[in-house]
Amino acid sequence: MSTGELAELARSLRTWRDRTDPAEVGMAVNAPRRAPGLRREELALLAGISIDYVVRLEQGRTRTPSAQVCASLARALRLSDAEQAHLFRLAGHAPDRGRISRRVPAGVRRIVDALHDSPVGVLDATWTLIAWNPLYAALMGDPSALDLGGRSTLRRMFTRGEAMDRVRHTPEERDALARSLVADLRGSTSRYPHDPELSALVADLYATSAEFAELWDSGVVAGHHQSHKVVEHPEVGEVELECDTLTTAEDDLRLLVFTPTPGSDARGRLDLLATLGTQSMHVSPSPRG
């Protein structure tokens, strides 16, 4: 980033923070404020980055923020599509057919908000969770507490044994899911040949997981569309769901939409979860700055 881009990024972040109504993004307002908008510590909390990193960004004295950090800031600040594009360009992440989009367009946010009766997660083309709605957080656990490895479906699958902590798979279901995810990821490598994070993910998993290496060497390319899930929730018990994967055309995002398995009691359990208290839709926090 040039000095001018750093200065413009710093100015824009300060402007966007000052105009953001704390109440609209779920922050409690219990007393009069000396200045409008979000405090730096509130922005840090919402975006999942350190306060010190927010300070350095707003003072123009930090390295280029990652695409994940930009996505987190954009969601926390409720940026429009044009503002998101401006932020990504300033940070050196201009749209490129060879690189993966981590942007969550306003249209996708509206769809996720509208599907409030269903748990919905939004993932990028590396199968990394970048946004979710309140019912997803209630069902799967608060994703804002997860590190980068915890948000990556593939890292969890091949280094921790399961793609999601609360999901129970039979051995056959787990193996089928692993094959499907690797086949989908291989397709992403041809669409995004210059994305460094995708290349690093493949190289790391290939070096650390014999299972991944074997599946990768098979050369299979396919999309991942639908699967059956049984979620073991600590408060409401087993929730039996169907998980459909919808892919957006422009940004190649994956929307995971969970619906009750016909004949199960999952609808009542999801309704109960909705009353237990959850968070508003969030872009996933990024690695600490």
TrEMBL record:
It comes from the Bacteria. InterPro entries: Cro/C1-type_HTH, Lambda_DNA-bd_dom_sf, MLTR_LBD. Pfam families: HTH_31, MLTR_LBD. Residues 33-84 form the HTH cro/C1-type domain. Gene3D superfamilies: 3.30.450.180, lambda repressor-like DNA-binding domains. This is Helix-turn-helix transcriptional regulator. It comes from Actinomycetospora straminea.
